[in-house]
Amino acid sequence: MDKSDLLNELRIGKEHRDDHANGGPHWPWIAVASLVALAAVGAAGWYYVAGNIHGFTVEAATASAPNAGGADTSVLQATGYVTARRAATVSAQITGTLTEVLIEEGERVEKGQVLARLESTQQQAYLAQAQAGAHAAQAQLAQVQALLAQNQRDLARQQDIVARKLASQQSLELAQTQVATQAATVAAQRRQVDVALANVQAAQVQLDYCTVRAPFSGMVTAKAAQVGEIVSPLSAGGGFTRTGVGTIVDMDSLEIEVDVNESYISRVVPKQSAQATLDAYPDWKIPAHVIAIIPTADRGKATVKVRIGIDAKDPRILPDMGARVSFFEDASDASKTAAATPPKGVLVPVSAIVRREGKDIVFAIDADHARARTVAPGQTYNDLRLVEGIGAGTRVIKQPPAELSDGAKVEIKSK
Asked: Which of 97, 111, 237, 409 could cross-link with 55 by S-S, CB 3.0 to 4.6 Å?
């Protein structure tokens, strides 16, 4: 075989080429697939970068120490917040300009104590006008009463004259008519005096509205207005009018509201013994009891709200503090927990624990960033799980997004 025959054998025929007419060229499909893959990778990268730069909106939970004797000493545990049953944002009953604000945050006020004063020049003028009208009405009453007394004396003399046949019966009837008419005038004037005094009272009420007083004893938690600002019981809609002077909370009315999963609500009954632990003081056990079970459920969260009464009042307990409540079958269980040894670790929501690269981790919240912490999960108690690797009081992300990474920026979702 010569060289020309060998070259002919190595030549590729048309039937073996990729751009055969029956199949068409393949390179456009390869290019499209590459673009799709690049777009997917770019979208994933953009989502990752956007989440880490602009931040993820997450819900936070606080790791808490379990009860002494173990979490299994209680029939149920739930989390919630301290709330005040008696709290009020105090405002003026009329629209006016503040001339004095006599409260500061953290001060205790008593019922009836003056909190602020409004400009009252106009109300004082109305009161003076009403008082002058009342004085004029009383003076007119004295005048008509004097005329009535004179008419009554004239009637007595006329009766004596008629009795001695020295005057006609008509003159007697005329004197009687004058007495009756004047008596009616006196009665009408007395009603005018009543109206004038009512006007004085109304003007005094308007003047009293310029003084804002505490409706009950409590602690000032917010100061909402300053001297020179306008306050009104109704919103003006422009943003320059305050609707309140300050907020007062009756600290004796503090209680805890928790959301209990509806699957476990059968374990809770009114007056049931309980124990509360504040997120701010994880080692402080507060005796408590069930006040009431609110007879409605939240279909979105599948929970039922339960009111918990605090048996030991303490100034460390503040409104809106996070709390965890353990429910006991009887009062003796609460005392048993104090003598037993608590298990190691802290309790976090089960949803806070995620699996990453073969490790169980939770994302702790450090300022506005997420920090991955490796943990060793333990026993599960309802919707909480015991873990080791973080301390009590650590704020963790309740349901970490799949794209969340160590060091990502996060923003806590408001309650």
From this structure: 409
CB atoms within 10 A of CB 43: 10
CB-CB contact of 85 with 255 (8 Å): yes
Q: CA-CA-CA-CA torsion for 223, 226, 231, 235, nearest 10 degrees?
A: -60
| pLDDT tens per residue across span 194-236 | 999 999 999 999 999 999 999 999 999 999 999 999 898 876 5
Q: What three-state secondary structure class fits 15? A: helix
Q: Provide Rg for the chain, Cα atoms.
A: 42
Would you say the pTM of this structure is higher than 0.85?
no
The pLDDT of residue 304 is: 94
CB neighbours of residue 113 within 10 Å: 15
Contacts of 196 (CB under 8 A, 6+ apart): 130, 133, 134, 136, 137, 138
Q: What is the mean pLDDT of residues 104-123?
A: 94
Contact assessment for residue 267 and residue 258, using Cβ atoms and an 8 Å cutoff: no
Residue in the structure block whose two tokens are 């690049």: 38
The whole-angstrom separation of Cα 275 and Cα 325 is: 6
User: What strands lie across the sheet with 96-101, from one edge to the other?
Assistant: 211-213, 114-118, 96-101, 230-231, 241-242
C-alpha 319/C-alpha 44 separation (Å) is 42
Residue 51 has pLDDT above 60, yes or no: no
